[in-house]
């Protein structure tokens, strides 16, 4: 196949963040390759599903050839597999991708973005570091807190579960502080279960750090921000266990915020710290709403 035709083939939907991986060390050596090594680089893999052919292996080389950053062959040797359906296309990609050893869990998030048509503008979501947040949002705990016998969370599919919520969250340009993993998880859950302007306003005010205090008492926004601040001062904010706690306490603050200031003063205007919400019924409600109660990959 002419290399131009290979470059033009659509990427596999699960493909990683190609531009970032174009800087991988082994590809720097490939730029000086000759002989058998250069010949090997011109061998690629594709799959035909219906009338469409997709790249399966060789995405990054295609990008570098198109950019003129890798010696460009005139033609590439393509091994073409015929697949019956999308599931088989995904399994085929997984086989070749696992062998590459260059992909990490963040790439699954980028692949999920691509599949859902999400193009994050905020730095917090663009960096792809959502593994802990998605685990907490769907399982109530970061991966390090879960049994190793439990399958890894399918981050690609988890992004699809929260497609609408991620778009809403991206719209307020969430900042890394206070949007640590626990706060991101709380935002995804909250926006999914309580999709109102008031919910988005709560997280927007957290983002702008616009909590209020009155007579020594905190409103729910200030209470949630105080939780994050206290954990930062204790240097515990990066601890995965504490991220799950941040999520539960932020959700309690959100529920108090939604209930509004008309409730008893000591329920809305808080003198002491905000307590953690009971995550189990919240996650049950979330999974029922999303229709994923029986899905072990989520």
In short:
The chain is mainly alpha-helical.
Description of the molecule:
The chain is mainly alpha-helical. The protein has helices spanning 3-8, 18-21, 25-30, 35-41, 59-67, 86-100, 105-116, 123-126, 131-139, 155-161, 163-171, 181-193, 197-208, 220-233, 240-259, 265-268, 279-290; strands spanning 43-49, 52-57, 77-83, 213-214, 217-218. The strands form two sheets. A three-stranded mixed sheet has the order 2-1-3. The protein has a two-stranded antiparallel ribbon with strand order 4-5. A hairpin with a 2-residue loop joins strand 4 and strand 5. Helix 9 packs across helix 12. The model has no long low-confidence stretch (mean pLDDT 86).
Features:
298 residues; 17 helices; 55% helix; mainly alpha; two-stranded antiparallel sheet
What's the helix and strand layout?
Layout: H1 3-8, H2 18-21, H3 25-30, H4 35-41, E1 43-49, E2 52-57, H5 59-67, E3 77-83, H6 86-100, H7 105-116, H8 123-126, H9 131-139, H10 155-161, H11 163-171, H12 181-193, H13 197-208, E4 213-214, E5 217-218, H14 220-233, H15 240-259, H16 265-268, H17 279-290
Parallel strand pairs: 1-3
Antiparallel strand pairs: 1-2, 4-5
Helix pairs in contact: 7-10, 9-12, 9-15, 11-12, 12-15, 13-14, 14-15
């Amino acid at each position: 196949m002419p290399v131009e035709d290979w470059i033009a083939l659509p990427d596999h939907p699960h493909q990683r963040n190609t531009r970032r991986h174009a800087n991988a060390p082994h590809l720097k050596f490939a730029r000086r390759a000759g002989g058998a090594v250069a010949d090997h680089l011109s061998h690629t893999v594709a799959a035909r599903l219906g009338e469409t052919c997709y790249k399966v292996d060789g995405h990054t080389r295609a990008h570098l050839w198109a950019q003129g950053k890798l010696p460009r062959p005139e033609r590439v040797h393509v091994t073409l597999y015929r697949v019956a359906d999308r599931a088989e296309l995904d399994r085929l990609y997984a086989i070749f991708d696992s062998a590459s050893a260059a992909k990490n869990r963040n790439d699954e998030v980028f692949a999920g973005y691509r599949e859902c048509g999400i193009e994050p503008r905020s730095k917090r979501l663009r960096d792809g570091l959502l593994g802990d947040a998605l685990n907490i949002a769907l399982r109530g705990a970061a991966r390090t807190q879960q049994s190793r016998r439990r399958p890894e969370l399918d981050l690609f599919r988890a992004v699809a579960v929260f497609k609408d919520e991620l778009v809403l969250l991206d719209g307020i340009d969430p900042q890394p502080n206070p949007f640590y993993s626990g706060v991101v998880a709380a935002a995804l859950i909250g926006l999914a279960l309580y999709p109102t302007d008031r919910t988005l306003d709560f997280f927007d005010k957290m983002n702008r750090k616009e909590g209020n205090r009155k007579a020594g008492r905190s409103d729910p926004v200030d209470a949630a921000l105080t939780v994050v601040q206290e954990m930062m001062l204790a240097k515990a904010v990066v601890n995965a266990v504490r991220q799950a706690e941040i999520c539960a306490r932020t959700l309690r603050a959100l529920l108090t915020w939604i209930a509004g200031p008309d409730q008893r003063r000591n329920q809305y205007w808080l003198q002491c710290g905000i307590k953690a919400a009971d995550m189990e019924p919240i996650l049950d409600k979330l999974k029922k709403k999303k229709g994923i109660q029986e899905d072990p990959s989520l």
